[in-house]
Amino acid sequence: MTDSFAYSTTFKLDKSHFSECYQESVEPDYSLRAYSKAILLVLMGLGLSLFTEIDQYAAWFLIGLGLVEALSVKYQKPWWLARQMLSRSSNSQVTLTIDGQGIRSKSVYVDALIRWEDIKEVTATELGLLVIHKGGRSYISNRCLSEEARGFICRRLPEDHDTDQ
């Protein structure tokens, strides 16, 4: 296999990109387990309010915090999207480079390299590739990839890795 392949492109971290990343890489969890932190905070607040002589401000603060946590679970996508849009990297340009070293994304705020040996799995989604690696999960949109780059990513993995194409 030759490492002479090199592909580079730039894209903007805008609302449509963030929305696509969430849609393709996150499986929302609305189970009781997802609400456990919210339930715990509300119960602690109620416990403080009912069974102690502590200032009611602290109890109501915990109850309010629990309600905000419950809303963050119920409205996961808009909550996540709002946090991304408020981040300093929002609307910045990212340079994506795919070569013999791995997959590099570089912007004013981030310079990250996912080495080929660190990639455990690449899963094709409807709109891009989900790359599972030692550091977590990364999503690459088809809008940023040529067919050659997409094929190179899938071919670059060793035979013992799982790859959905």
Number of strands: 8
Q: Strand content of the residues, in percent?
A: 25-35%
How would you describe the shape?
elongated
Strand order of the largest sheet: 1-2-3-4
CATH architecture of the largest domain: Roll
Structural class based on helices, strands and sheet pairing: alpha+beta
Assembly type of the chains comes to single chain
CATH topology category name of the largest domain? PH-domain like
The ordered string of helix (H) and strand (E) elements is EHHHHEEEEEEHE
Q: Look at the structure and give the mean pLDDT.
A: 90
CATH class of the largest domain: Mainly Beta
Number of domains: 2
Radius of gyration: 21 Å
Level of helix content?
40-55%
Unreliable stretches (pLDDT < 50, length at least 5) are none
Distance between the termini: 19 Å
List the helices and strands and how they pair.
Layout: E1 7-12, H1 15-25, H2 36-51, H3 56-74, H4 76-86, E2 93-98, E3 102-106, E4 111-115, E5 119-124, E6 128-133, E7 136-141, H5 147-156, E8 162-164
Parallel strand pairs: 5-8
Antiparallel strand pairs: 1-2, 2-3, 3-4, 5-6, 6-7
Helix pairs in contact: 1-4, 2-3
Protein name: YcxB family protein
Domain YcxB-like C-terminal: 98-150
Pfam families: YcxB
